[in-house]
Design a protein that fits this description.
- There is one protein chain.
- The chain contains 14 helices and no strands.
- The chain has helices at 2-16, 22-32, 43-109, 118-125, 129-143, 150-153, 158-176, 182-189, 200-211, 214-223, 229-244, 253-277, 280-293, 299-308.
Length: 309
């Protein structure tokens, strides 16, 4: 029976797979056949690695050069900024000293609004001019260390200079009745136009500041009995306002200060109108005329002349 079963199994196997050993033979052929390797296993990979290494090295060198140039540039910037900051600190210290001297001068000039004589007030205030001259000389020495950069640093002392010009102009007007010229202001401060001069805009702003003091001065002088002062101040500020009209000013700080001058002019006009309408201005003009012509100030002589006529 075992032989019959063996024969039946062989028949079924041959029916299902006529070549029972072909699959295994092919499998063995493909699986166990020897593989022939090239003499150089990875020539392309080695060349690619060398090319990539060379490229990365050149990129690293380029990045290193770029980084080095950036560092050098910002190192130069750091040195320049530190130098500039040192100069500004020294200039600010001098500007603070100028402001201090200006405060003392203004405090002395305030006495002119009281009963003090103009000569005494001017003598006191003039003592600070020498101090200011020395401080501006120190500024000019610092500016020589950075030639050609005046307008880079003049903002450090600009507002102080405008205040100084306003006080000098007011003092000059009290003494002479005229406007302080630009060249005269430079001479008082020891400035030189070729090296370290007085900026024109700072001068003009200072003159505008000076006009702000005139209405108060006029009111106090009329209160003290000087009825001829409004007419004198009115003529001066009218001429000054007309002179400013010649300038083509932009819409900046100077233009705003000039626009404020018309309000000073209006205040002086109002004071002069009040004095004029009360007849006080005519009396002041008569007194001024008698003084200029050498007329007698003795009331007895005037009465005698009236009887003879």
């Amino acid at each position: 029976m075992k032989a019959a079963f063996r024969n039946a199994f062989s028949a079924v196997s041959s029916t299902l797979n006529p070549k029972p050993y072909s699959f295994f033979s092919v499998l063995s052929l493909h699986t166990f056949s020897p593989i022939t390797l090239p003499p150089h296993p990875l020539p392309f990979r080695n060349d690619a690695f060398r090319l990539l290494s060379a490229t990365s090295d050149s990129t690293s060198m380029a990045e290193g050069g770029t980084s080095s140039s950036v560092v050098k540039q910002f190192e130069s910037f750091r040195c320049q900024l530190e130098e500039s900051g040192g100069l500004r600190e020294r200039m600010r210290a001098i500007a603070m000293a100028i402001e201090s001297a200006t405060r003392f001068m203004y405090a002395d000039l305030l006495l002119v609004h009281q009963s003090c004589s103009v000569s005494e007030v001017l003598e006191k205030a003039s003592s600070q001019i020498a101090v200011l001259k020395e401080l501006y000389n120190q500024l000019s020495v610092i500016l020589r260390e950075c030639p050609g950069q005046y307008y880079r640093y003049n903002g450090e002392w600009r507002s102080e200079t405008q205040s100084v010009v306003s006080l000098l102009t007011f003092m000059h007007w009290l003494e002479t009745g005229n406007l302080l010229m630009h060249t005269e202001a430079e001479q008082k401060l020891g400035l030189n136009a070729s090296d370290f001069g007085l900026d024109i805009e700072d001068y003009l702003v200072g003159v505008c500041f000076m006009s702000n003091e005139l209405p108060r001065y006029v009111v106090n002088q009329v209160t003290a009995g000087d009825y001829g002062c409004p007419r004198k101040v009115l003529k001066f500020i009218t001429d000054l306002h007309a002179a400013f009209r010649m300038l083509n000013l932009r819409n900046d700080f100077l233009r705003k200060k000039f626009d404020g001058m018309k309000y000073d002019l209006r205040k002086v006009e109002e004071v002069y109108y009040d004095v004029k309408i009360r007849g006080l201005a005519d009396k002041a003009e008569e007194v001024c005329f008698d003084t200029k012509t050498g007329g007698s100030a003795d009331p007895g002589d005037q009465e005698t002349q009236h009887k003879q006529s």
